[in-house]
Design a protein that fits this description.
The protein has seven helices and ten strands. The protein is α/β, with parallel strands linked by helices and 217 residues long.
């Protein structure tokens, strides 16, 4: 199975994860961020897509051998859940952000019987809120949610707290810690930038990380 550094290098090479500590991005919440993640780009790059989805399938097989179904999160987790499920010969479905306002008003798409052992496939874990909501919807429908496999995780303390409170195990193919190590090694950022990114991750609301100086390459 590909390790975290393999996945990190692949995500950086296609700019699915983009580091810009000197020109921060602004999140919808208003938080200034030195990192931007769009794992949808992995779908457009065949080598990276294969690497990621084979790694997802291997992680599910290793950590959740009793899994009976994969459930993708809308929308970025859907395609990866489908591809990994195909590799594992498992059924899949996905959870909408909200129930449809027409037809049968489904929020869960695909047939899932009560008691089904499910693994959620997510593209990105930031604060953990969206994947926890997904797990709650599945549990209310009778699923046994074994855990979550995501492509990338910031590793924010608030996410760990929320996931723990929700009794939801989460494992990622790549974390911010491994990604910034590769980014320094491969010349995307400087060693000082790495410290700034870690400081951001530890407390996104504290903008003091922007006061340090360092040049992003």
């Amino acid at each position: 199975m590909a390790n975290q550094y393999d996945v990190a290098r692949a995500l950086l090479s296609i700019q699915a994860v983009f580091l810009q500590p000197n020109k921060p991005f602004t999140w919808a919440s208003g938080i200034k961020s030195p990192i931007y993640c769009d794992n949808r780009l992995t779908l457009s790059h065949t080598e990276t897509r294969t690497l990621v989805d084979e790694a997802i399938a291997e992680m599910v097989k290793l950590l959740y051998p009793t899994a009976e179904m994969l459930m993708g999160t809308a929308t970025a987790g859907i395609a990866h859940a489908a591809i990994a499920a195909d590799r594992l010969a498992l059924p899949m479905g996905y959870v909408r952000g909200s129930a449809k306002d027409h037809g049968r008003h489904n929020q869960i798409e695909g047939r899932m019987d009560p008691g089904t052992q499910v693994v959620i496939i997510e593209d990105l874990i930031s604060t953990g809120g969206s994947v926890i909501e997904c797990a709650e919807v599945l549990r209310e429908a009778g699923a046994e949610v074994l855990g979550v496999v995501s492509i990338f995780s910031y590793g924010m303390p608030i996410a760990a707290e929320r996931l723990g409170a929700a009794d939801l195990a989460c494992d990622s193919l790549c974390t911010l810690d491994s990604l910034v190590e590769v980014a320094v090694e491969d010349g995307y950022i400087t060693a000082l930038d790495r410290e700034r990114l870690i400081a951001f991750r530890n407390n996104p609301k504290d903008e003091s990380w922007m006061e340090a100086t360092g040049e992003s390459l």
